[in-house]
Amino acid sequence: MMKKQNLFLGGILLFSILLNGCTEARQTNPEPVVNEFFAFSTLITQKLYQENGNEVIEQTQQMLRDKEQRLSLYVEGSELDQVNQMAGIAPVQVSEELFEMVSVSKRYCELSEGRFDITIAPLSVLWGVDSEHPRVPEKEKIEKALSLVDYRKVELDEEKQTIFLAEKGMALDLGGIAKGYFCNDVRELYEAAGSIGWISIGGIIYNHGTKPDDSDFVFGIRDPEDPVGVAYVGTLTAPEKVISTTGAYERYFEEDGVIYHHILDPKTGYPSESDLLSVTVICKDGGLADYLSTTLYIAGSEAIENYRNDPRFEVIVIDKNHNIYCSDSLKGKFELTSEDYQLYE
Asked: How far apart, in whole angstroms, are the C-alpha atoms of residue 257 and residue 249?
């Protein structure tokens, strides 16, 4: 028997705990403007404190919907779909935006030594965790799909601005970087509009400016083992940065009493068997935060010490023993509030 989690549930739960954990000051002037909509198969929420907040929210919403139509794996005829359809046949000339996203993503694939791989689409589609009919594929089908996963076969021609997938059946999936990457575009829009507030794209948060009382926005980090999704382990301030969290609780399904989550390991073809519960990455670059939270989750605890105090970003890592590892620079920014977890010094 199979029991599927709601397609959007992971993002909503992450959003709920991140933002219900806020200690936002109540201000009567200006009144915050809040908006929610769906794009890229996830919930997107904005909350802005400004007189023209509705106008900025509408601009942001239109920008993200346009990107979905052009860059989504699941939109027939999108730029990305055209590249995938022409795999093994011919290069496809693409927009500067898609070319840059794929170029950056391929570099991340190399840096991760294949733990992050943008050609994972054949496996993503096969498992269908984000679809209405998730399933555990037959071993032979997993092996066949796995043979098509190899970022080194993505050929980029910078002069012609073309992308070519060298083998028929290959396909790109930018889901591991897109939400964070688009936070960078939102930052530019907010800066131009002088916005104060935040956006959550599937639980990936970017906050801009300070609250009307000049204090920082405060967010809660979800307890990854809370089945209801309303408890959090601590609170965090991260002004002008993107907060990206990856955990197996976000999207999953159950079959024959076994839970299968959405974080597929490109080396095995199966959901990652990480010894971590969740990884949160905080940094200016949303694409880097999105990529790293997934990659470090798959890498597991062996990667903690190597990346715990990397100057490019900060991390909050929770392992299965309820230890929380934080970057030293987060002292005074992250506060543990749960008695069920302990900070590892």
From this structure: 16
Rounded Cα distance, 46 and 60, in Å: 9
C-alpha to C-alpha distance for 43 and 203, rounded to whole angstroms: 8
227 preceded by cis ω (within 30°)? no
pTM of the model: 0.89
What is the separation of C-alpha 272 from the centre of its chain, rounded to a whole number of angstroms? Answer: 16
In sequence order, the 6+-apart residues with CB closer than 8 A to the CB of 239 are 207, 210, 216, 217
Q: For residue 207, list its beta bridge partners.
A: 198
* Residue 204 near residue 286, CB atoms below 8 Å: yes
**Which percentage of the chain shows pLDDT scores above 70?**
92
Could you give all domains of the chain from N- to C-terminal order, each with its CATH number? 78-165 (1.10.3980.10)
Q: What is the pLDDT of residues 304-341, one digit of tens each?
A: 888 999 999 999 999 999 999 999 999 999 999 999 99
Residue 226 to residue 217: CA distance in whole angstroms? 24
Which residues partner with 243 through β-bridges?
205, 282
229, two tokens: 């999704």
Give the per-residue pLDDT at 14.
35
**Nearest CA-CA partner of 280 in 305, 246, 329, 312:** 246
